[in-house]
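sry for the spam today, last one i promise. struct tokens for design, 180 residues
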């Protein structure tokens, strides 16, 4: 009998910043694989608030304890290449994607079709966002913070502090308070 092959999954994103919605998908994705690689994309077209190195460190800090608690192998790796090439390089057979709304599905549907043409042996698994997190988007979190709003319901306490420091302390005082 052939030994079971390690199930490696990739969860890609820019994570600028990592939100409670991302953490929900990571938590659930860890249940599906033996090793989860979180791919932090460069994507300069999104005008990131944090550098690539800062985002990698932030994802490690936020998701590492969860992976250790679940007992699943875990890596955070930056990438600047086609997702399918990255997945192949990581030995992944699964791409994990989170869906919040119909608009996400339309985009992801197209991406999955293109990715399948590149490598049909890598499957894409869609996880619907927990209803509590369906409206959270990193772009909106940054916008709320830039205008002095409270981002505590959308990100962890440490991420709220980091965002507040980055936008010059303009976030609402509760943004650095306890997690919602």
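last one done:
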């Amino acid at each position: 009998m052939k030994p079971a092959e390690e199930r490696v999954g990739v969860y890609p994103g820019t994570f600028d910043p990592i939100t409670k919605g991302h953490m929900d998908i990571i938590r659930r994705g860890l249940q599906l694989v033996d090793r989860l690689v979180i791919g932090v994309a460069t994507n300069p077209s999104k005008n990131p608030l944090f550098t690539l190195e800062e985002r990698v460190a932030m994802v490690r800090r936020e998701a590492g304890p969860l992976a250790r608690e679940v007992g699943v192998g875990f890596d955070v790796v930056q990438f600047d290449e086609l997702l399918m090439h990255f997945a192949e390089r990581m030995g992944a057979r699964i791409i994990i994607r989170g869906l919040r709304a119909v608009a996400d599905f339309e985009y992801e549907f197209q991406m999955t079709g293109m990715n399948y043409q590149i490598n049909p042996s890598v499957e894409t698994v869609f996880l619907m966002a927990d209803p509590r997190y369906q409206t959270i988007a990193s772009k909106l979190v940054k916008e709320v913070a830039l205008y002095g709003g409270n981002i505590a319901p959308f990100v962890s306490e440490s991420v709220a502090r980091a965002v507040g420091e980055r936008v010059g302390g303009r976030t609402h005082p509760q943004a650095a308070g306890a997690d919602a």
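The chain has two domains: 8-134, 137-180. ok im logging off now
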